[in-house]
């Protein structure tokens, strides 16, 4: 299938430990058991436990409540505090300060969250929601509203031994907002660049007086433009959630979402350059012009999506806990674009994902085991209809192409986390069965695959907070869609070896993480421009590199997030001309620093000032590595300013004024990826007024 160029895919939990209280009585002291209270302080959320910018535990790596220090794999976390301070407007903005994550490879394009981790594309197979895979189709990717998140866990490296279908580069687990045990209410209004108007609310708390039923309702309405007049940024978002907790041992949480979003069918600019007889660029003026490639009269890309699911947990005793997560999702798209003619794509997909596992905690002598055994089942089905023709602007062309595909994936997995003295050993294995049915123009392609994946990791946790580790893992994932020759895409497999060290600074809310890695991915699926159309191709990749990250939230009001990564991603197999070349648009060097300070005393008490810098090194604009398509290094500056108005007048308690700016200096250099060139997003300023009570 040839896809026209404009379709380029580019309730917090607070754990309060009561001390044993002795009260003088006639008998003996009374000991109070440890209790768990749910609220918003300390930014702690069920699957993520955090204090400010610093996360201390996450379920994303192992599906168990394991401290990050004791998890022998590279993990970064975007906490609720970071989200509130930076106010990201997309998934790309949310993860832009994490190491090894390359965003902006396709310049400004609000249609898709296209990005790489460690040089590996994770757009289709690396994004999870609440521990479950998000099922996507070639032109139907679920969109994210960051206001609906409590946090994000970025797990680098293979996680297929427990998650099944996922990218070798890692997974990004989006954690939805959940009901809070304590009442929480928030409303906010925003305005800003390009006529932005937005209102949002977030309400939560108990429903019943016996504190067994809790709710949360999060919503947002936005009317906005972008730096391209023909590209909208309109959205209606609603996310209801309920938690029923009849006993301390049993809980059921329902998570829902509906979103209706409209943006542009294409955000591309015309490319103009001279070529030789073979079609190769010859002019230094190569690349994107400032001429928009589409037409504002026919450029709406509307997507309606919804999901409903539940999380069930029952603790039988201190040894056994049963968990089940299930989610149904569906979306429909209507994408209009103009590129020498009118094009239309209508695509719908639906998917169901279910994961059931039993966690067993047992001891064999001095050795402790946390054993996870589970069954994971998912099913994806999509239908895509496309049309392109020379018709009057505003008129839909006939839909002359149709394709549909159904994929079913079933996996059994077993994991054992072994603890002996200071040693931490993780062993995991999973076997998947994949069935795929593809139909287009009366031609059917069916295939069945089976694959075993595993993970082995060893760490040593010292009493000083230092934890070196080594890990090895493999991955396996099916791919939707077809290749350049019309055949069904092969499943992608991969493996990675990683050596790292983690350090939690004693006596400080701060941590450092560093890792070196060597990974390989076979039959990786990527898009590249061939003959002026966007084609899906498969190749083998090898990526090696180094990463370091530091985060801290200090008592003096200072929050810090800093990272550096070096990535050398090379092509092992594609064409003879590209063997050994650097992978398109993956820079060697990336670095970032975010500093956030809140004045603690004096007349300016409550004033928050923040600034960030993101550096992206040079990269190459195609897999042939032609110097004429080289992307120059670039640096972006971000900033934020906020003030709690109660410091002016106590009657304004709960009100906060905040301004956030991204790309403050309005740097908009050209960026080329997969043989086509774009422009980075320019300056964006958003002002907000929030009230909490």
From TrEMBL:
Extent of the signal sequence: 1-22
Membrane topology, record value: Multi-pass membrane protein
GO molecular function list: siderophore uptake transmembrane transporter activity; signaling receptor activity
Assigned GO CC terms: cell outer membrane
Domain TonB-dependent receptor plug, chain residue ranges per copy: 68-171
Compartment annotation: Cell outer membrane
Region (Disordered): 41-64
Alphabetical UniProt keywords: Cell outer membrane, Ion transport, Iron, Iron transport, Membrane, Receptor, Signal, TonB box, Transmembrane, Transmembrane beta strand, Transport
Gene Ontology biological process terms, A to Z: siderophore transport
Record-annotated TonB-dependent receptor-like beta-barrel domain positions: 244-664
InterPro entries xref list: Beta-barrel_TonB, Beta-barrel_TonB_sf, Plug_dom, Plug_dom_sf, TonB-dep_rcpt-like, TonB_sidphr_rcpt
Key word Plastid present: no
Family: Belongs to the TonB-dependent receptor family.
Protein name as it appears in the record: TonB-dependent siderophore receptor
């Amino acid at each position: 299938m040839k896809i026209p160029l404009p379709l380029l895919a580019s309730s917090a939990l607070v754990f309060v430990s009561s001390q044993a209280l002795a009260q003088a009585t006639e008998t003996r002291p009374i000991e109070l058991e440890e209790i768990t209270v749910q609220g918003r302080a300390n930014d702690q959320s069920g699957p993520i436990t955090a204090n400010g910018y610093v996360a201390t535990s996450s379920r994303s790596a192992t599906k168990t409540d394991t401290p990050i220090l004791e998890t022998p794999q590279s993990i970064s976390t975007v906490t609720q505090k970071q989200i509130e301070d930076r106010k990201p407007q997309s998934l790309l903005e949310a993860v832009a300060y994490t190491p090894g994550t390359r965003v902006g490879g396709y310049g400004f394009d609000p249609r898709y969250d296209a990005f790489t981790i460690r040089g590996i594309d994770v757009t289709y197979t690396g994004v999870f929601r609440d521990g479950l895979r998000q099922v996507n189709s070639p032109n139907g990717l679920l969109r994210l509203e960051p206001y609906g998140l409590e946090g994000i866990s970025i797990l680098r490296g293979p996680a297929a031994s427990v998650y099944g279908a996922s990218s070798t580069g890692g997974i990004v687990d989006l954690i939805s907002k959940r009901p809070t045990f304590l009442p929480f209410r928030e409303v906010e209004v925003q305005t800003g660049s390009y006529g932005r108007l937005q209102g949002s609310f977030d309400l939560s708390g108990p429903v019943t007086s016996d504190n067994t039923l809790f709710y949360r309702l999060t919503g947002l309405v936005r009317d906005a433009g972008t730096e391209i007049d023909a590209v909208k940024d309109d959205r209606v978002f609603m996310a209801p959630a309920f938690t029923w907790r009849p006993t301390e041992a049993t809980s059921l949480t329902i998570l829902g979402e509906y979103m209706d979003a409209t943006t542009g069918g294409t955000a591309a600019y015309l490319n103009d350059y001279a070529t030789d007889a073979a079609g190769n660029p010859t002019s230094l003026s190569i690349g994107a012009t400032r001429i928009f490639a589409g037409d504002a009269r026919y450029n709406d890309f509307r997507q309606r999506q919804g999901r409903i699911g539940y999380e069930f947990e029952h603790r039988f005793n201190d040894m056994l806990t049963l968990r089940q997560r299930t989610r149904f999702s569906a979306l429909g798209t209507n994408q209009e674009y103009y590129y020498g003619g009118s094009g239309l794509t209508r695509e719908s997909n639906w998917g169901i994902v279910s994961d059931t596992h039993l966690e067993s905690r047992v001891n064999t002598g001095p050795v402790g085991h946390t054993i996870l055994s589970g069954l994971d089942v998912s099913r994806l089905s999509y239908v895509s209809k496309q049309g392109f023709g020379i018709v009057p602007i505003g008129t839909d062309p006939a839909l002359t192409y149709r394709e549909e595909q159904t994929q079913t994936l079933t996996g059994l997995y077993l994991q054992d986390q072994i603890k002996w003295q200071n040693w931490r050993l993780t062993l995991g294995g999973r076997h998947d069965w994949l069935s795929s049915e593809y139909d287009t123009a009366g031609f059917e392609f069916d295939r069945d695959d089976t694959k075993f994946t595993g993970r082995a990791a060893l760490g040593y946790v010292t009493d000083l907070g230092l934890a070196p580790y080594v890990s090895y893992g493999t991955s396996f994932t099916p791919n939707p869609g077809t290749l350049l020759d019309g055949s069904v895409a092969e499943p992608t497999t991969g493996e990675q070896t990683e050596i790292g060290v983690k350090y939690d600074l004693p006596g400080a809310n701060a941590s450092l993480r560093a890792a070196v890695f060597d990974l390989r991915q076979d039959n990786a699926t990527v898009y590249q421009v061939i003959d002026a159309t966007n084609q899906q191709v498969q190749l083998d990749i090898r990526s090696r590199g180094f990463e370091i990250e530091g985060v801290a939230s200090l008592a003096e009001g200072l929050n810090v997030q800093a990272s550096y990564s070096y990535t050398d991603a090379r092509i092992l197999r594609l064409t003879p001309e590209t063997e050994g070349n650097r992978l398109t648009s993956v820079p060697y060097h990336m670095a970032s620093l975010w500093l956030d300070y809140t004045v603690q005393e004096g007349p300016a008490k409550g004033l928050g000032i923040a600034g960030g810098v993101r550096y992206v090194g040079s990269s190459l604009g195609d897999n042939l590595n032609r110097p004429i398509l080289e992307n120059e290094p670039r640096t972006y500056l971000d900033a934020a300013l906020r003030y709690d108005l109660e410091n002016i007048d106590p009657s304004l308690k709960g009100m906060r004024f905040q301004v956030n700016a991204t790309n403050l200096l309005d740097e908009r250099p050209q960026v080329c990826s997969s043989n086509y060139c774009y422009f980075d997003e320019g300056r964006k300023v958003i002002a907000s007024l929030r009230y909490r009570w």
